[in-house]
Amino acid sequence: AKNAGRGRVEVYDDDLRQALAAQAALEDGLRRALVEDELVLHYQPVTDLETGRVRSVEALVRWQKPGEGLVPPGVFIPVAEASDLICDLGRWALKTSLTQLAEFDAAGGPGSGLKVAVNISGRHLRSPRLVDDVRSALEASGTAPQRLALEITETVMVEDDAAWARLEELRAIGVQIAIDDFGTGYTSFGQLARVPVDVLKIDRSFVDSDDPRTVELVRLVVGAARSFGLRVVAEGVEQASQVHALQAVGCDTAQGYYFSRPVSADRLPAAVTGCHEI
Ligand code: C2E
Ligand code: CA
Ligand code: CA
Ligand code: CA
């Protein structure tokens, strides 16, 4: 029995070692990817449910790994979040998306005049560099702060006073703040009235559900957001029936495969035009 016990410990040790090695390799690779320009941003349109127009897009990172194709963020963001690498990635995403926005403007057509939402990790929000990072990306691209939104997940937003102050500072210069994945964390209705945010993104899990009580919950959230002066984006909309249900509860805007998948920069103008019929 003793031997078997030791055997198990060794196996466990081995697995752990392998997992840590894999994580370290991924981290090294990602560090290199940032330097060697292997990361790209794809953009997903956000559609106005009243007019069918697209006024903003969300920037979503992908890793173009040589010989392996596009690696989705779910694979490498968690690894990046274990270190300050996530802040480097955040700076890169801010700079790249705002520069691209200026390029879309210059090209004219359906891609011009858009706003962009960039995902910011909790670790970056807790870093004192965030405000400078945002300011310098805005300055370098010559983009108006009003055209940038930062998406921050609900869980991060709750406690930290310094983080709240940072959000207030960014809002004061005109940057919009969005709560991402709303409904998956612990924000209460009471907190909704006080959080320094402009936009609430309702998590896909609520949009997905046919359960009448979930639909009622979405109606309540949309109503509360309205009365607190927040705009609402429903995430992960895949079907026409979901569009109609969201319109019925007064939701402003939506995002999802029904309208467009996230697309590369060169395909964005076509995707924006394609969203118009709702
Ligand atoms: P998220 O911010 O909640 O982004 C939405 C995710 O839902 C994206 O996955 C998007 O492709 C996917 N999606 C959009 N519409 C639909 C739909 O109709 N159905 C379904 N099933 N999925 C849909 P993606 O691009 O794989 O990103 C996953 C997560 O990785 C993001 O979730 C975000 O948390 C993180 N992420 C992506 N880019 C960045 C980034 O630049 N910085 C940071 N810190 N995190 C990022
Ligand atoms: Ca997001
Ligand atoms: Ca989300
Ligand atoms: Ca998410």
From TrEMBL:
It comes from the Bacteria. Residues 23-276 form the EAL domain. Keywords: Membrane, Transmembrane, Transmembrane helix. This is EAL domain-containing protein. The chain holds residues 619 to 896 of 907 of the full protein.
